[in-house]
Every structure is written in C-alpha cells, then in structure tokens.
Amino acid sequence: MASNSWIYDAIIYIYALSLLFFFSDFARQNRSAKRMGAGLLIFVWVLQTIFFIIRMIEHRYMPVLTLFEVLFFFSWLLVTVSLVMSRFFRMDFIVFFVNVIGFAILTLNIFSNLESRAPRTHGNVVDELLIVHSSLAILSYAVFTISAIFAGMYLFLHFQLKSKQWSMTVRRFPSLETIDYFTNMSAVVGTPLLIMALTLGIMRIMILGDWSLLLDMKVWTSIFVLAAYSYYLWQRASANRAGDQLALWNLAAFGIIIVNFAINYVSGFHHWDGA
Q: Angle, to 10 degrees, between the axis of helix 31-59 and the axis of helix 2-27?
C-alpha cells in the first residue's frame, strides 16, 4: 500500500496546483492559466483512476464500501463530471466551483484510514447489492452536488442582476435560463438514481431479514432527501415558484443530503467503524 500512499499525496498536490490556476482565471480572466489548470486536472483524473484500479485489484472488490473509498469515489465523480461539462458545454467557473468541493472532500479524506478494507461477512448476492446500492447513492449525491452548485450560481447571478451590478464576473456567467436548465437537469438525473439506490438498500434489508434497519435514521433521512428533490421537481414542472425560490429549495434539499451523510457515523445501516 506504500505505492497507493504516494499516489494519493501526488493527487492532492497536483489538484491544489490545478485549483490555483483556475482561481487565477476566476479572479482575473486568464486563458493561459485556465488551460494549465485544465491540463493538471486531467492528470489528477488519470492518477485518481489509477489509484482506484490499484485498490480494486488489491482488495478484490469494488472499492465503494468504506468511508475512505466513498469519499474518494465521490471526489473522482466530481472531477469526471467537471471535465465532461468543461469539454462539451464550455461554461466559465463551473469547473472551478465543482473542484473546490472535490478538493475539499479529497483533503478531508486524509483523516480516513487508507488501509481500511470492508469486511465481507454475507453472501455474494448481499455483497453485490451493497456495492451497487453504494455506487448509485454516491453517483446521485455527486449529481445533486452539481445541481446545488448551479443553484448557488443562480442565486448569485439573480442578486447581481437585480442589483444592477454589471461586473466582469457577472458577464462571464451563463444566462439565468442556462443555469436554471442545468440545475433542473441535474436534479432530474439524480432523483431516479437515488430511487434505485434506496430500492436496492431495502432489498438488502429484506434479504438480511433485519427489519429493525427500516427504523434506522439513515433510511428515513434518505427518504427525506428523495421527498425534498421530488417536491423540487414537482414545483419546477408546475411553475408554481420563481426561479430564485426554486434555487433556495434546491440548496435546502442539498442540506438534507449533508445531514444524511453525517448520520452514517451513528447509523446501523452503514458500518464504517474501520474506515
């Protein structure tokens, strides 16, 4: 695992350097710095992918079960999505905002146990259900994070336009319509992913036969997350709310996700004692 450790350290340092270049472009439009930041970010993605594959080979399971693996996979997803969006949509700032969160998560993960390995105490079907459940849940949370970032951008731009503050930063933002579209589409993608994750989680409880887990706080907060985003999508479809109100509700729903993640430390549904 020594090789894994130095790869992880390299990812952190290169990621930080990439963000510095992106910040230079954010603070004062600098296309050269932006290209340099994008190049370094691609290198970060390559190293993360190599790290992920090495861990998969060494531990012989899809590494999404321990706290360390969950946070690392989450950060990898954010880097991946930001690179795809940068390539196909060419929106200023979104790559920087997304990767500030990705870097924060990766740095926070230093306090997790790199050497941890998830115990495999059940049958293969249960193991596979848990892996798919975890993967879908992490993917949905990554998409919801993108949606929350766009919601924050919407509120910022809405306030700036309402206050008639026409700065260079405002001019580089996408239109409110574009931001609203991506906010909504991210929620549209994330919601069915979360539904599938919850369905598989309940199926796992049924196979284990431990019905007390249905009363676990983790299960109920996950249902609250789904309800919050379902309500957001319903309000969006029915056009009952103004754009800034929808953005606020989106951020509130994301706040429930943060609470839901924090509950893992006291939940009986997910066991991260060794992570």
A: 160
